[in-house]
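Mods, move this if it's the wrong board.
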Amino acid sequence: VTVDAKVLRVDDSLESCKTIQVDTVINGDTTTIPVEVCTTIVYDQVFFDTATSSPFYSRKRILKIEDSTISKRFVTSSFNGVDEWVQNTSDTVYNVFRNDNSDTTIEKNFIFWVRSRDDALVKDLTPEFVSFPVINPKYERDIAIIDFTRSNKKQYRHIDTSRAFWYNTIQKWNATNSHDIIFDTAFFTLAEIGDAAYAGKTGIDYIHAPRYDGVGIPLNILLKHKVLILYNETYINSSFADANKINYPEILSAMDAGINVWATWRNPLNVNFNDFSFQTIGAPSDYTRYFGVDSMTYSSWFFRSIVASPPSTDTRNEDFIGTYSINESEWPSLDIDTSLLHSRFNWPTNPFFRWDDSIAALPEVNWAVRSFGTEVMYLYKSKYGTNKPFGIEYEGSPVGHRFQSNLFRTVHFNFTMLFLDSIQAQTVSNNVLDWLYDPTLSGSVVEENRYKDALYKISIEDARQRYGERLQEQKQLRLNVGN
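Not the wrong board. Structure tokens:
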């Protein structure tokens, strides 16, 4: 629709003319003369438009419905019992993919179109519309590892060490059940993804989170899975959360959609790692809500070690050598394998941090103050027992628990798996994945009482509201960055 109310349909044409200034030579002198240039546009595609900022159509409000990202299937329209004209000022539409039979997770843009009419029943020629993305989750894959360890920190020999560990762990678990797990640690090729920032550096089932800093991990990738394993091997901190907010809110949205999560990491919250003092950090409210952690205590191992002059084991306060189990039959006690700790951890040659046979313990394993609805699984086992000669004594503090709401389950470990006794690590991994993995999770809507015996209750409406709030926060953040 043009500003002069001309209605254009497919295959109609419109001539648009403008005057340009052209340099020319007349009698040997260069001069500028006005020339009218006309362009004929044939409308071979359909546009939605409000005609507000252009002589003939608004280029800022164009939406080609032939675009492959647009769903071309009609979903629904308003109806008052007689026709489509209603008095409603808002509406909610459910199951917009009702006409789509895809068996894989897809994302499409949908158009919400509003047309009004006046008292004389004359329809608005330029209806308002908005397009928005909608994901149809199918959870067609099974498990994804999200590795928050930054490659420039190199806390293990190579990212391939972690990829091999998790591949073997998940395949061995798969051999104990009949789920026929799909799990592939291969990274994207340039041909697959077309972006050198991601090709060869992250994948569909092994996701290197730092590659998505500032943009977020695509939610349509997360929603292909039934279980997410959040992993961080750095002894300083990860980028997952700050003191006041979660930096990867899309993971929370995936959990609201029914995906269960195993967080096995050290230092998931950003702290002042240049602080010599021991730190207790309150967890962001969303961290409490989704992982059952109220706060964490840090040993400040990095800074306490580096300020030693001369280097001394007296400042090396690492002492984690395993765990005590609350329920040995379900969660076997765990022990650090010192040979794996020596070989898989990238111990610097710097005298402040180098491997020391007399210590042989995993650094910066924090302990967590739990919140309502959690169940303790593991307690901290110190090489010094209750007689630690310096630093904060962690012996017997909770370092592993599980948490269940009516919508999702999480397991939270303050330690990582790569350095544990291999048999013990596999046994506990099998049991954790048995508890988290839900083979019935598919394209259907997650029921509000999925886990009926959960102490912590969340309504579907609350989950939707939180998702909307996160979208608004992300939108405001982008606006702030743009300004």
